[in-house]
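S1.2 Input.
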Amino acid sequence: QVQLVESGGGLVQPGGSLRLSCVASGSIFSILAMGWYRQAPGTQRESVALITSGYSGVITNYADSVKGRFTISRDNAKNTMYLQMNSLKPEDTAVYYCKLATMSGSAYWGQGTQVTVSS
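S1.3 Output.
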């Protein structure tokens, strides 16, 4: 079993920055990919950023709406994934979730952390 715990959310003014963290614990091996997702009230959960690693190195992928503003990264030694969010906009307001997918087809979610961008 894998447990994921997010932290780092909060209230920030437009143009500000936040860094989210997702710490993984438990039976962590054969990770296929990790990612950040978000869900605003009344909307479906959407992918924000994904990160995977393989023979060609680390591969990242971003939603068009966050490209150039958000950066996803991993620290394997700490079993932690990060999302650096800069130039935040009110439309970035949502609950942010981290997800871990394994090569065996299992998927695990964190409990979410609220990000509110407002003046």
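S1.4 Remarks. The chain has a mean pLDDT of 94.
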